[in-house]
Specification:
With 288 residues, the protein is an alpha/beta fold. 39% of the residues lie in helices and 17% in strands.
Length: 288
């Protein structure tokens, strides 16, 4: 358990035990990480946001210290949504600000659509609206070809584990533009988290089951105020995936970050903190 100004805790939600770190008091800000990370990807945001909010950064199911169901069906979008709603309930809140990166962003989209009355604001980093993801271009399919590999049984686990989980570190080296922002010590922590028994299959099951449940849905117009943060040089998701999002979100603001790849909140933490604080302060509606 990595030490810091935060506190480590566990909560049972939707029948599974989830680990999280928390700091601060006030309105709830729930942080959802992506692949292949864990709560630690929000290390730069937690203390800053905690100055005015109760911040909770989860280990999503399948990751790090949270439970890791091994059947792919446990990772369909409906189950992931129930996890988050259960956390909000379990923490004693009626509503929450929701912030998600990568797969955490996709889960956040799902939660906002499922229970919009429970979400005060939505902030999504490096994750397109799910309706845009259903319309991938050929060029984007080439960028996302790794997702097809991840559909295979057991082989992706072997490749990610090979060489002391070296592929986990290589993902960060490939997808981050600001390489100095993610230190070798940080990479080692991500590798350690992936080495937990069952973690690799849990992480990969988001692609094996989550994608199918995502593509089978229809998406209307979202009423939750939404901020999108996007690295201009993201090699995994083209910037064109942000174009046209306003057709699916009634109140939308998009900020593009220079010298920034896929790991937005780690590559440009100060700017991300500035945008998030401004968004929470200016858009947040008071709790009823």
């Amino acid at each position: 358990m990595i030490e810091g100004p935060w506190i480590h805790k566990f909560i049972v939600s939707n029948g599974i035990r989830l680990h999280y770190v928390t700091q601060g008091e006030g309105e709830l800000v729930l942080l959802l990480h992506g692949f292949p990370e864990f709560w630690y990807s929000w290390r730069h945001q937690i203390p800053v946001l905690a100055e005015k909010h109760k911040v909770v950064a989860l280990d999503l199911r399948g990751y790090n210290l949270s439970d890791k169901p091994q059947d792919a069906a446990s990772y369909v979008l409906d189950e992931l949504i129930l996890d988050i709603v259960g956390v909000i309930d379990g923490l004693g809140y009626r509503r929450s600000h929701l912030v998600g990166h990568d797969w955490g962003g996709m889960v956040a989209w799902g939660v906002a659509y499922a229970v919009p009355e429970r979400i005060q604001t939505l902030s999504v980093l490096a994750c397109p609206h799910p309706a845009k993801f259903q319309q991938l271009s050929f060029e984007q399919w080439l960028r996302s070809s790794y997702m097809l590999l991840f559909q295979l049984p057991w082989l992706p686990e072997i490749l990610l584990e090979w060489g002391g989980y070296g592929a986990i570190a290589q993902i960060f080296r490939w997808a981050a533009v600001n390489q100095q922002a993610i230190r070798p010590a940080d990479l080692a922590l991500y590798q350690d988290a992936a080495a937990h028994r069952g973690a690799l299959s849990g992480m990969l099951n988001y692609y094996r089951a989550g994608l199918q449940s995502l593509w089978s849905r229809e998406w209307g117009v979202l009423d939750v105020p939404t901020l999108m943060l996007w690295g201009r040089q993201d090699p995994t998701l083209g910037i064109e995936l942000t174009y046209g999002t306003e057709a699916f979100v009634r109140e939308l603001k998009i900020q593009y970050l220079d010298y920034c790849g896929h790991f937005v909140q780690q590559e440009q933490p100060d700017l991300v903190n500035e945008y998030l604080l401004e968004w929470l302060e200016t858009v947040s509606a008071p709790l009823n």
